[in-house]
Amino acid sequence: MNAKQVHKFVGRYLEATECSILEKSPAHYTVKLSPQADRELTNRPYYWSFVDRVGAEPETMSFLFVTDKDKYEASLQAKTAMEEKIEPQQQDSQAAAADAALARSFGFINGSINAPRIPREELYFGSRKLEQLFEAAKSNGSFVYLFQEPDKRGASPFQSTAYTAWLGVNMKVEFACDRKREEIHSFGVSLATGHCIDGFHERLLKAKLTPRLPANVHVTKNGISFGKAQTIVEQQLERKLKTYDYTWATEAAKRLEEELERIQTYYEPLIGHALDENKPAIQEQYEQRKAEIRWQYEPRVTASAINCGIFHMEGIE
Questions:
Q1: What is the widest separation between alpha-carbon atoms in the chain?
Q2: What Pfam families does the record tag this protein with (predicted)?
Q3: Could you give the CA distance from residue 171 to residue 232 in angstroms, rounded to a whole number?
Q4: What is the pLDDT of residues 125-172, one digit of tens each?
Q5: How does DSSP assign 77-132, residue by residue?
Q6: Is 269 helix (H, G, I), strand (E, B) or coil?
Q7: Are strands 143-148 and 300-314 parallel, antiparallel or unpaired?
Q8: CA 109, CA 40: separation in Å to the nearest integer?
Q9: Are 88 and 31 a contacting pair, CB within 8 Å?
């Protein structure tokens, strides 16, 4: 995930949580968090429990989110150099040094050293704060309820368009042994007919979606239940996985047997020659080591739902 993708994701999160963006550039956002974002990102449970208990007006935190450090530092230096050319230096050397030191720790704010400071967070793939954003987005976006926006060209205001409800599910499949590989599969099931589509996410990308029911639209009655649609998704995924090549699992099972034989040749003589009072501890260590090796080498395939939603799409399928 590069800096441009991080910047786009952060912007979408701030917009979705209704944060106040005070300043932004292609390399940073200066924001005042909304109550929702503050709860998710600042780790202040005691403060928010107090606000909820007494009904006080919350005071949310402000942050400087830097999504491209090199670009942001370069623009900051250029801005500082330009300001120095326009007006003379107003701070003495000691105050300037203190201001620079505080800026490196808490973020840059124009003005004196007595001005309020905004904490600075550098967001890059793997950073703690970006992981918090990912978790917040995942928990808030685990389920959606959306409608396709109809094509208004040539549409009659007296004609109602039929919409079908689809259950869309994104599944993560993990192939694991001493190596690991992951795949994402997107399925859509028509709740009217039970028809299942593989690659449903690509279909959604081509449509404009809205959380509000559009005008001149009626939703057809569901023909199957959510439980039945879930079963159809599971069966479709199972059929797809059965067509895969599982040579990797056979090879992993061989490596597992080799590792178990290796520790067996080490521990069995050790247990046989150990004192009686030491044998239980060595046996326990042997069993623990076998469990660790099985966890590392044993081939397994696991599937889990990442997120899902109900999507009302034009037409009946």
A1: 92
A2: YqhG (PF11079)
A3: 13
A4: 888 999 999 888 888 878 889 999 987 655 566 778 889 999 999 999
A5: HHHHHHHHHHS---S-HHHHHHHHHHHHHH---SS-TTSPP--EEE--TT-HHHHH
A6: helix
A7: parallel
A8: 25
A9: no
Q: Which residues pair with 33 in a beta bridge?
A: none
Q: Select from 60, 56, 25 the least CA-distant residue to 44.
A: 60
Higher pLDDT, residue 161 or 174: 174
Name the burial class of residue 84, with classes exposed (0-12), middle (13-18) and buried (19+) by CB atoms within 10 angstroms of its CB: exposed
Q: What is d(CA 185, CA 180) in angstroms, rounded to the nearest whole number? A: 17
Of 40-54, 143-157, 245-259, the poorest mean pLDDT is in: 143-157
Q: 201-211 b/e with 16+ CB inside 10 Å = b?
A: eeebeeeeeee
**pTM over cut 0.70:** no
Q: Which residue has the tokens 């395939």?
A: 301
Q: Which structure tokens are listed for 109?
A: 């704010």
**Residue entry with tokens 């623990």:** 288
Query: Which whole number is the average pLDDT over 216-224?
Result: 89
Tell me which amino acid residue 138 is: K
Higher pLDDT residue, 97 or 233?
233
89: left (phi > 0), else alpha (psi -120 to 50), else beta? beta
User: Of all helices (H) and strands (E), which one includes residue 181?
Assistant: strand 180-190
Q: Is-contact 63 31, C-beta < 8 A?
A: yes
Q: Determine if residue 18 is left, alpha or beta; phi over 0 gives left, psi from -120 to 50 gives alpha, anything else beta.
A: left
Q: Mean pLDDT, to the nearest integer, of 29-44?
A: 92
Region 162-183 average pLDDT: 93
Structural tokens at position 243? 């067509």
pLDDT of residue 99: 61
Token readout for 41 is 């990102």
pLDDT of residue 113: 46
Sign of the C-alpha dihedral computed for residues 214, 217, 141 and 40 taken in this order: positive
The alpha carbon of residue 87 and the mean position of all alpha carbons in its chain are separated, in whole angstroms, by 45
